[in-house]
Amino acid sequence: MGGFLFGYDSAVINGAVTGIQKHFHVGSGETAFVVAIALLGSAVGAVAAGWLADHLGRVRTMWLAAVLFAISGVGSMFPPSVQVLGLWRVLGGIAIGIASVVAPTYIAEVAPTAYRGRLASFQQMAIVLGITFSQLVNYGLNQWAGGESTNPLAGIQAWQWMLGAETVPALVYGVMTLRIPESPRYLIATGREAQAREVLREVEGPRADLDARVTEIHTVLRADHKPRLHDLLGGQFGLLPIVWVGIGASVFQQFVGINVIFYYSSVLWQSVGINESNSLLISISTSIVNVIGTVIAMLLVDRIGRKPLALAGSIGMAISLATAAWAFSYRTGTGTSATLPSLQGTVALVAAHVFVLCFAFSWGVVVWVLLGEMFPNKIRALALSVAASAQWLANWAITVTFPDLADWNLSATYVIYACFALLSIPFVVFCIKETRGKPLEEMG
Predict the structure, then answer these.
(1) Contacts of 431 (CB under 8 A, 6+ apart)
(2) Sheet strands (E) in 72-220
(3) pLDDT tens for residues 382-419?
(4) Which of 96, 102, 196, 235 has a CA that sits 20 to 30 A from residue 170's CA?
(5) Cα torsion angle, 44, 50, 53, 56, sign
(6) Exposure of 226 by Cβ count < 10 A (0-12 exposed, 13-18 middle, 19+ buried)?
(7) DSSP labels for 283-336?
(8) What are the structural domains of the chain?
(9) What confidence tens digit (pLDDT) does each residue in 209-232 have?
């Protein structure tokens, strides 16, 4: 549910953008502000999550995230101004950041060793399912409102219902967090070994060697190294080369423009002559392709390796983005009167779906797998945090600039994204090292 809400809250704004623009009479700049500001909140939440999880516990931190999701949903549903809507989006972003850290941490600490990898992969699947479900809800509400997100439903405009709907899964998340056990690692770290034994017995079964597991956790806790910033320093450019590689992978993942599809696809397709209802239907189809690509990645990442998948994805993204740029170059008109010729419109739609598929089976999953594996044990936690923060900031940069860039020249904007995809090819070839099948202790 943490991953689901991560995806849902990130992408739900896609269906509401047109309604927000019409209701508050705002242009590209204000639209970018509302969409992108949640990502700054996500960066704050991700940084705070580790401290909260260590001081409040994993379960209480998840419950806090659920409360923030619910409050953000209700507040976003009734904003008196676009600025206040931005503040509620920041609160939701903080919840996203917390969920993005604490959920995989909890899974890793609670899951029995034999199931850890498979259960951890459900986090990524939950994210893309959350994205897909948000687009389904947006489309359903739009259709119920007669194809216009500013039309009222029970006295409230459809776009408001879109943003408020996240309250339902947030409440489910909150209830579920009250019914799961605390992390054994956290319990032992805070001196509650008897409770930890009860949790281990519950999740691993009566045949589990509890003494061995408790001893193992004690050993890990004693050996834990709390990395500091100076541990990341070294090399010619300040940070260790491996840290720069992690930052580079995070930045490339976002600079290909993937989240333009998930945050702006409704206004993107409307800007080339497709009506609001059909643009939301396209958002659903790209989300489904995203799920399919993620399944492919989960099946292949341990079979053929991280590097081949990333390389194949980079090539596919570069070609599909360049193709989309060519198609968008035929756009004529502006605003709601803009159109694409039939051939170029079809090519643009196909290219966008191919792009999402190539991203999903490669960089969408591979980058997170690499970030969890590539760093030496001594700096892994801090280096991953730095790389993840770079990813949120890169996501924000792309999100906040797209509306103005698209108004300037949509085709040139996609040329920029295609160039980053092209540059990611030599980055993978020369900078990424294969981590498949290597123990974490060998990373360095």
Answers:
(1) 245, 248
(2) 152-153, 156-157
(3) 787 788 888 888 999 999 899 889 888 999 999 999 99
(4) 196
(5) negative
(6) exposed
(7) HHHHHHHHHHHHHHHHHHTTTT-HHHHHHHHHHHHHHHHHHHHHHHTT-BS-GG
(8) 1-180 (1.20.1250.20), 229-444 (1.20.1250.20)
(9) 777 777 777 777 776 666 677 778
